[in-house]
Amino acid sequence: MSANSLYVPQLCPIERIRQETPDTRTYFLSACEIDWSRDYRPGQFVELSVFGVGEAPFCLSQSPTRADSLEVTIRKTGSVTNRLHDYQPGDVVGLRGPFGNCFPFERAQGKNLLFVGGGIGLPPLRALINYVLDHREDYGDVHVFYGARTPSDRVYKNELQTWSRSDQLKLTETVDQADPGWTGHVGVVTKLLRGLEVDPERTMAFTCGPPIMLKFVVAELLALKLAQRNIVTTLERYMKCGVGKCGHCCVGHHYICVDGPVYNFEQISFLPEIP
Q1: What is the DSSP string of 165-229?
Q2: Which of 32, 60, 116, 244 is deepest in the core (most CB within 10 A)?
Q3: Where, residue-wise, is CATH 2.40.30.10 in the chain?
Q4: Counting Cβ atoms within 10 Å, is residue 86 exposed (0-12), middle (13-18) or buried (19+)?
Q5: For residues 209 and 191, what is the distance between their CA atoms, to the nearest angstrom?
């Protein structure tokens, strides 16, 4: 964060860019003046500025245990993200943060973990997944469920391949529409949860994806007898300024950028106007 003000961004050069899908890129940014291993926790977000265009919030997509550079995975969805997709290594963005709370990784210690991600919902979960893998002895079984529209829409393809071969977690993938080379599941990610055998007293679930996906994922998790407080998501899509001043993310008496963006579904049930 800027040493002078919450509102003044640092200037961070783009070190490199990885194309994830036709409309999604991962940006590796200079760490600037921030000690990411100390000052950042999985689930937090930053505000990135494209000067002359605007500013937008983005979750951090890598664990602080692997934070040699700052990673942000961005899909083209608006004016800021469209302009970012024109940027190249060496170009400079503004950065404020990190902001917000984090995933309850300490409360999850000793529990079995389910991760359910859809599309661009995997990046914030990836930060926590890799944190868990780097502290593997602190957690029970880990099962990652990931759904995308097509095989080419999957982010982190190389990392998914690594996870699929790992004995540290189980990965189950699905796509809505398969191509001739796809050998995995076909269908929505919620179908993968049906009939899953879990110990609800010893299991926590973390999920992120489109709102319609979350609705059905939570229904399936509740059917598995998980408590609402043990089902966790992130609501970063409601944020703007990042520091609770603009009021854009005010829901009831809560400022999502300050009190969140991470909430469990027991907390969400008390928030009005959230689908």
Answers
A1: H-SS-EEEEEESS--TT--SEES-GGGGGTT----GGGEEEEEES-HHHHHHHHHHHHHTT--GG
A2: 116
A3: 10-99
A4: exposed
A5: 15
Give the confidence band of 2 by pLDDT, cuts at 50, 70, 90. Answer: very low
- Please state which CATH class domain 112-234 belongs to: alpha beta
pLDDT band at 6 (very low <50, low <70, confident <90, very high): confident
Domain with CATH 3.40.50.80 in the chain: 112-234
Burial pattern 169-184, b for ≥16 Cβ within 10 A else e, equals bebbbbbeeeeeeeee
Locus of tokens 């963006």: 261
Per residue in 135-145, is it b (16+ CB within 10 Å) or e — as a string? eeeebeebbbb
Instruction: Check the CA dihedral 105-108-111-113 and report its sign.
Output: negative
Residues 195-253 pLDDT 10s: 899 999 999 999 999 989 999 999 999 999 999 999 999 987 667 788 888 888 888 78
Amino acid at 8: V
Q: State the CATH class of domain 10-99.
A: mainly beta
